[in-house]
Amino acid sequence: MPINPEILTEWESLEKICGVPDIMSDRTTVLFILESPHIEEVRAKIPAVGRSGREMTKVLFNGRIHEPMGEYLSVHNGHVGLCNVSSLPLQEKAYHRLCKHEHAGLTNALAAVRNNWNKRGNFTPILQQVEDVMFAKFMQKIVHCSSAQVLIPCGKFAQYYTRKASNVFKGKEVVWDIPHPSHSWWDIKREHVLGKVSKYFNHSSLDVVRLLEQFKADNTLQVDK
Fold first, then answer.
1. Rg (Cα) of the chain, in Å, rounded?
2. pLDDT beyond 90 at 97
3. Coil, helix or strand for 173?
4. How far is CA 67 from CA 22, 54, 112, 171, 209, in A?
5. What pLDDT is stored for residue 224 in this prediction?
6. Concatenated DSSP letters for 177-221?
7. Secondary structure letter of residue 158 according to DSSP
8. Which residues pair with 152 in a beta bridge?
C-alpha cells in the first residue's frame, strides 16, 4: 500500500494541532476501538470525553461513575485502553476555522471518507490516498499496542477497519457486534453490550460481570429515556 508522502506530511502537521492521542500502554490488555475524535476530544486531547464517552461509563459502571470513559481511563489507566481508528476528526465541525482554512483539502477528504467508507468503489484517487494514510496509522497503533490481547471495535466503521487490519493482529481475540456508544446505543442494548464484554473485565475496576448479573436479575433496572 503506497503512501502519498505529501498527504502523510500534512496529516502529521494537522495532527499536532487537532489530533487526539490514544490511551494505551504496555499494560493494556483490552483495547476499545472507536471511530474518531470530535469537538470535546479535540479540546481535551483525550479520546471519548464527549457524549459517547459518558454513555460508555454510564453502562459499564451502571451510573456510578460520571466522568466520560476517556477521562476516567486517563486517570485510572490500568489494563483497559482506548483508541480511535483516526486520530484526526472525521467531521469538519470538529476543526476550528484556522485549521479548516489551511487544511481544507484534507479535512474535506476526511469527512468524505467517513461518509463513504462503505462505498469505497466510488473513492476518488485523493480519497483513496487519504484513507491509505489513515489506515496505515491505525495499523501502527495495533502493532504498537502489542500487549492488547482483546480488541473491542465499537460501531460499523471501527469494525470495518479492524477486519481490514486483521493480518497485523493474528492471535488476538476480537469482540464483534458492539454498537458505537453514540445516540444511546449502549444504553438501548445494555444487556447485549454487557454480555459481550463481561468476561474481559472480571476482577477489574470495570466490574461489568456483576452489572450483567444485576441487569438480568433486577427487572427494575430500566433503560433511561
1. 18
2. no
3. strand
4. 17, 6, 31, 33, 20
5. 38
6. -BPPSGGGHHHHTHHHHHHHHGGGSTTSSS-HHHHHHHHHH-TT-
7. H
8. 32
Q: What tens digit of pLDDT does each residue of 160-195 get?
A: 999 999 988 888 999 999 999 998 999 999 999 999
Q: Give the mean pLDDT of 194-217.
A: 63
100 inside domain:
yes
pLDDT at position 214, please? 54
Give the position of cell 495532527: 15
Q: Is 62 left (phi over 0), alpha (psi -120 to 50) or beta?
A: left
Write out the residue range of the structural domain in which residue 29 sits.
Answer: 5-184
Q: What is the CATH number of the domain that holds 91?
A: 3.40.470
Within-domain flag for 224: no
Query: Which pTM was predicted?
Result: 0.88
